[in-house]
Amino acid sequence: VLFTRPEPVPPKHLPSRPTIQLTFKPEDVMDPPSQSGDSSSPTVVKRCRKLGRRKFRSSVPSVSNTTHKTQSDSTSISGMTSEFGDSNSNVKKEQESTHRPPDIDIFDFLPDSFAPLLSSNHVEANYSELSAELIHALQASASVELRKGIFSIPLNKDITRPQFTIFVKENGCRISAKTTVGSGGFSVKDDFDVTKPVKSRTKTLIKNAEIVFEPALALGNVVPTLVHLPQLFEDNNGAASLQRVPIVTLARSLISNASAVAEKTLWALEKICQINLSQIQLLPFYKAASRHKPAHWRIGLNFSGHVVLFNWLPIPFITVSLPTFIIPCPHAMLEHLLSSQPLASATLRKENIAEKLIGCAICDAVEHWSIDAKSCVTPPALEVDVTLSSGMTVAIEALLGRDLSGAETRRQMGFNGDFESFSINSSLSDHDATIGAADAKKKRNISIGEYFDSNNCTPWTCCLKASGSVGHDQLTTNINKFSVSQKPHFENMSTAKSSQILLSGNFILFKKTRHGGDDTLEPKDDSITLSKSSTKIVRQRSWDPSYPSNDKQINSTEQASLCSILISPDKTFQSFKHKSLKYDYGFEVDEKTFLDAISISIGVIHPLLQGSSIVSFVLESMYAYGRVEAREDAEFIPSGSKRKRDILKHLPAVDLVAGINNIFIPEESLSYTDDGQSKMIPSLYGGRMKIRMIGGVVDDQNLDNLTPSASYDIDPFSISPSTFSEDISPVSKGIKVVTDFGASTFNLQTVTQVNEFPELEIFEGSELKSILAGTFSGRIQTYLRPQNLTTRDSLNTKFSHNNTLPNIHNPLEAYEIDFSGSLGSLKIKESSSSLDHRRLIVPSESVFLVKIVDSVVDMALEGKTLCEISWDFQGASPVLQVTKLGYSPELVSHEDKKQVPILIPPLQQGRFNLTVSSVGGISITEAVTARENKEGLYDWKFLNVLINPADDSSGILMKVLHDKPTMYKVLEVVKLINDEFGTLVEHVLVQVWRAKEILAKEGISDPGHVIPSYKMARLVSLFLSGDEKEVDIILPTIQRVTKGNGLDVNRVKDLLETYVNPKIYEKYSPEIDRAVRWCSVLLGPIAAPQPYVEANCPLSEVPHYAKLFRNIPSAKQLYEIVNEKRLLPLDVDFSNIVSRVSSYLSFSQVKYLLTHRSKFDWQACDLRRLRYVYSVKKKVLEISESYGGLSFLPQSFFMSVFVGEATRASLRARVPKSGKQAIPTQIKRNGSVSTMALLRNGPSSRRTESIIHSPAQIAMMRSMKKQSSIIDDEETYDLGDSLLGPCDVAILLQAGLTSSLKSSTVVQLNQRMLIDLIASQPNNFAVAVLAEIGTPGGYGSPRSLASALMALLELDQCSFASEHRLDLHTLFEQWLPGYKMPRREDYLAGGRWARQSYYDSIFAVAEQILSDAEMYIALKNHIQQVRHCSEAD
């Protein structure tokens, strides 16, 4: 035989950036949970269509009828499954078909609560970028002690066949295992030598392994098991080719016929030959290439033990190996061994393996276990992607070590501005201040660093010592030591320090027990103790004790084992379903825990928007210590759905401290933010942070005492890690997190595109360049706690009749977050903004402080915030500089530019309170200026008038207007910006001051004093000419207006031409003419409206409309059915149709339905929808009462979360009718590429990304299809399935149209989500929304609708990518068949309709829309208004 040396093991090459990716997405109603069965969208749609045509019943059926109906439904489902099933199938298949779930209603998957803060509940994990080669070495020893007994391991799913059995004797059996894993050709010492670079290592393989049984383990049913094993895999050693040989085929048939006889013979022989296994050796060997398989490394299995004949004669066997077609050989290479197919000589047939049953059987046999392992690994990065309800994806990536890599250069990303040129001092950080300007510029403009490569990283060493026990009713785990450490060795890591993580703790899981009728916790061993604990932990529930529990105890002997429940909670053990388990744990982080560096990258992206953002931080010198324990009576339901919100039910008792001594943004990496309009490059150096997390600890107190009362009198920038407060009061309920932070240097460089404004010398292509540099520090206090609800008894009483109160069973409605006591401070070192030839400079050392006095917000974003804001420009004022057009103030000399301070001394320092409502409304109170406690002209009332005009605002503004020092300062600034406009403002101010002097001289202090026409004419004459000579001309003009004959335009223009400054009149004559004509229209005669004559028949009772509403209950029927038979539940059909029409009801109606019926009277999914609609309408009602203007400047940001959550739940495919295709409801990205990888590859990769169009784009592309009418269904009115009604959508649209930030990305995205929602609904929904906009106060107003249409048709979409912008004219024509929407460009000079009025055309369309909206108005009257009698009565 010729022996050849095996080929060397291939060298190792790791993925450049191995990552574990966790993705959190909003729950999509079109993707039902897996446990509900495979319910495709056609099934869902079928249920919707049936619901839309169902006739509701005006009476409630009896209980017996309802029960009979339920039974018949279940019978039909069972019969249907048995019809398509196989009569010869086994018992398990019959049970599965019997328990097949019925058709699923799309409303069953609505969120059980409106909680935007916790909306992303769907979790996905992606391990595709991981590799087993990350494990470089492993040396482990483990032991398992088996309990006495006979245990069967079901390797065969056929329960009629004998199963593999092990016999454990009186003293049990100890199984010891040892293994060594490493690189080929390396010793154990070399494997664990971290100085060995990854590129010098080979692929990881199993070097040796051994399993020892003490005493030898007796085996049973070995022959039937070995005969059955080939069914679990498919042999790869040429068996398939041999089957085609005739002689082999003949031999197989003979063996098959004799197999049953041979098996029974061997089984009978086994009864007198007891096999005892004492050792299994696993050794790798090289397998040369064959015709069927390439060369590879595999593990040979060698068995040792003895056979006992007749129970007294032992016959030993040593290193016996069986043929691979009986027991196949596994792979020796770790990358193959940890794959889905670990066998080298065969392919697993996983469908034939009962993995869960085998796992349960093994756990039942194990009594104690222990492990001692040491490994050398390269840890992967962790990426968490959170997709918000608006479609925005926020990605956070954490990586051990310093990641100084980047992607493209800043110039490639579009950052072409030279910020050096207009910087006052230097935008360099402190550590760059010592180098020259040329070197600094060269350093800053270097290309971004190379990509991060894990092959160049230093491996980490991990050690684990743990033990535990497995019982029928209890599982325990003791982690004696868990350490992760790294020691740097590379030359370029000379500044790095050793890192280590030390952790120890215990965990116990057990069932509930019953003693004396009370639930008690009785773990078999008290292992949850921490010797280093210095603070007593309150063993208190994380869920409030007053909350009722519906769990019923079952006798422990009748339950399955605990391991069986955990492995298969849903299918195998139905008797334990929805029952909870108790758990307890305690873990401690040692004080020696220290990490040298962690790299954090944060990215933001939206599939429809331009731009993206990614910021990379390096956190150095991190430390942590503390402990985490479970609270008293902690429990969980293994069969329950796993949601992110369930974390609130398992809050631990925690006392943990973590700190970071240095935080910076590496210059080598690319950090930027880009929203499509503004690009910003941040830099940060000398950052620091300390976090204290505490909860479940004695002495419940507030953290208010920790915040200095004179916080503004101390230096907020002297915070250092040594001065961070350690004395934090503990809390017993919830968790409190206090984060102290600060940075010695930060820098923000921003470039913003500005729309052209030729009148102010701002032309196309102008950019606003800004620099902000300085220091900041502060504290963020967050307290997650249960809301202060009423007692258990009164709360349950209320809940039985009022479904609008918080749901105590839902953590989303029972918790709130308190931010009170948080504060932040900013000290400016340099700040300037440049726009072409203008620049604004903020004084150095200026200080801005913000303190949150009171802020409590629940999970639905309900709550108010009171902030205290102060500023101090250190006695100076921001300066405005202007030079000649085409020059830059930064480059010209001092003589060639003009400058002026823009603030008067009283406004250079101040303080005020800012109140922010839950809908984004702001108001200012209690301001304090440099005059200390003295109130002056520029107190808080003046600041409040600027953003929130009140009743006395006119008086305050008039005082400011007549304050000449202030106005002269304003004139200086205005003239510097634009000299011509400043001259005009000066002229207007002079005339205003003249008017005040005239009124004061004439003794007029009230508008009523000028009512007599002669006195009014005299005052106008004095104002124009300075005497009374023009009274005879002005008096007839005034009398003409008072008689209703309108304004004499020619006479007024003659007077103005005579007395107005000729230069001003000549230059602004078109504007003056337009203003006079506007006054003429305002004061002109109008036709009196004709008396309104009501039709004899109400609109909702017109036969045509009544036919459309026959399946929709009227308001009178709603109230009658809800109020009758209060002791019986509501009819299923009635409950269903009420939930469908709830979005069309008013807020008071939905509230009435929820408060006048118990929650048990409604169907579960219908009640969930009603409660959700109630929450949405309540929020919309608050917005409808307050929106628009500067006083609601931040409202769009508050609305973005609300609109995203509300539209996400509503946005689903339309019900297909007559073969029409449903509109897609989601905007998805290609899931194969992570968000961070997409951002690092630059904008070019986003253009090649697979994107599904939004509903509005789909509807726009179908606009060419002809439709006969607005009604999609001629038989019934199609209500759609939106959770936002037409009135709600109209209010939200108008709030966006009146926002002060119309062109911001947030407002554009809010409007787009609402338009997508409208596009996903029937066309009559769009008509209803427009009708609501055009009927303010319930009365039709074509002017209001025309103004809204003009704004909607020209909606700003600059933040969206060009391929995702909508042609709103085409979209509206799709919604309104037969309409032609006017386009503004057609009415401009050179357009086809240049001679006509664009406004008149829009106005005509608005009138036609309101005329066609009669059907919706009839529906609204039908379901919202009660008619007690008909006109005939």
Give the class from helix and strand content and strand pairing.
alpha+beta
Low-confidence stretches: 29-108, 407-449, 514-539, 541-558, 572-578, 700-726, 791-800, 929-934, 1213-1227, 1247-1251, 1264-1273
- Provide the β-strand percentage band: 15-25%
Gyration radius from CA atoms, angstroms: 39 Å
Tally of helical segments: 38
General description of the model:
The protein is of the alpha+beta class and 1433 residues long. It is 29% helix and 25% strand. The protein has 38 helices and 38 strands. It has a 34-stranded mixed sheet that branches. A two-stranded antiparallel sheet has the order 8-12. Strands 19-20 form a two-stranded antiparallel sheet. A hairpin with an 8-residue loop joins strand 9 and strand 10 (296-309). It is elongated. The termini are far apart. The relative contact order is 0.08. About 17% of the residues have low confidence.
Give the helices and strands, then pairings.
Blueprint: E1 19-25, H1 41-53, H2 63-84, H3 91-98, E2 122-126, E3 135-146, E4 149-153, E5 164-168, E6 173-183, H4 188-191, E7 204-220, H5 222-228, E8 233-235, H6 239-242, H7 246-270, E9 273-287, E10 296-309, E11 313-320, H8 334-337, E12 346-348, H9 355-365, E13 366-377, E14 381-387, E15 393-400, H10 437-444, E16 460-470, E17 474-486, E18 499-510, E19 513-515, E20 518-520, H11 562-567, E21 581-589, E22 594-605, E23 613-629, E24 635-636, E25 653-664, E26 672-674, E27 678-695, E28 735-753, E29 767-786, H12 792-799, H13 811-814, E30 815-818, E31 823-835, E32 838-842, E33 847-858, E34 865-872, E35 879-882, E36 898-901, E37 909-916, E38 922-929, H14 940-947, H15 953-961, H16 964-977, H17 979-1002, H18 1013-1025, H19 1031-1042, H20 1049-1059, H21 1062-1067, H22 1069-1083, H23 1103-1108, H24 1115-1123, H25 1132-1141, H26 1147-1155, H27 1164-1184, H28 1195-1210, H29 1235-1240, H30 1243-1247, H31 1255-1261, H32 1286-1297, H33 1305-1319, H34 1323-1333, H35 1342-1353, H36 1368-1375, H37 1398-1412, H38 1414-1424
Helix pairs in contact: 5-7, 16-17, 18-19, 25-27, 26-27, 27-32, 28-33, 31-33, 31-36, 32-33, 32-34, 35-37
